[in-house]
Amino acid sequence: MRLAWIACLLSLTVAAGCARAEPPRPLLWKVSDADNSVYLLGSFHLLRKGDYPLAASTDLAFEDAESLVFELSPAEMNDPALGQLMGAAARRDDGKRLQDTVDADTWRRLEAWSARRDVPLENLQGFDAWFVSLTISLLEMQALGLDPQLGLDRHFARRATAAGKATQGLETGAQQIALFEGMDPALQQQSLEDVLLDAEKMEENINRLHDLWRRGDVDGMEAEANQRMRDEYPELYARINRDRNLAWLPVLSQRLDGGGKDEDVLVVVGALHLLGDDGLVQLMREAGYTVERL
C-alpha cells in the first residue's frame, strides 16, 4: 500500500476528516520573539461537518491574531478561475493522448477506474498525467463525503473576513500550478500509477492519516506521510514540501519580526509543511525563535 501521492495532495491542496465526539488536538505551535507571535496551524483542506467545532486552543489563536496567512490568499483560494487555469496548463499540446504517455498496465488500471466511477476516458485523454492523478484523488475523496468548503483554510478565511482581519497568501495559484507542470514525465506516470493503486483503499488510507491528525500525532503523521513521500518520491517531496517551506521561512520571519509593529499572526498551511526536520516548526526553531506546542 502506497501513500506518497496522497501525502503530496495533503501537503498542497487536500485532506480528509472523520467525525469524532471530541475536538481534535490541533497541530498548532506558537513561535515567539521578544515582541510578537506567529501561530502555525496544520490545515486539512477538505473536511466534514463532524470536524467542527474546533479545539479551544485553535479558536484562541485566531482571536489573538491581528492577521492571517494562508498558502493562497482567500481571494485566489475562492476564485473559480484558478481551476480553469490549472486545467488549461495541464492540457496537452504535443499531439499525444494520455494513453500514449503511460504504460499498458497503468492504462488498464485507468480503464477499470473510469468504468467504476463512470468517468469517460475521453474526458481525460487530453490532459497530462499529473492533472489526471489530482482529478482521481479529488473525486475519490469527494466520494467519501469530504467537502472543500468545510476545509480549515476556507473556514478561517471566512472568519477573517467576518472579523475584518487582514489576510495574505504565501504564494500564487500560478506558482502552485507550476509545481505540478514542471514534473518530469516519468514521475507523472509514477504518480498516476500510484494513485490508481491506492484508489480502492483510499478510504482506509485517508482515515488512517486523519486519525493521526485528530490525535495530534506528530511522529505518526511524519512517518506515515512525509517519510513515505521522501522515500518514494524524493524529487516530488523536495518540490512540494521542502523547497516551499524554505521559501516561506523568510516571509514568516519578517511577519514575526514585525518591523517594530506589535502584531500576532495565525498561519494556516497544509499540515505536512509543519512536520519533520525541514518542516516550518523545526526551521523556525533553528532560526532562534521560541517554539512551543499548544
TrEMBL record:
Record's signal peptide: 1-21
Keywords: Signal
Domain of life: Bacteria
Record-linked InterPro entries: TraB/PrgY/GumN_fam, YbaP-like
Membrane-traversing stretches: none
Protein name in UniProt: TraB/GumN family protein
Organism expressing this protein natively: Arenimonas soli
Taxonomic classification: Bacteria, Pseudomonadati, Pseudomonadota, Gammaproteobacteria, Lysobacterales
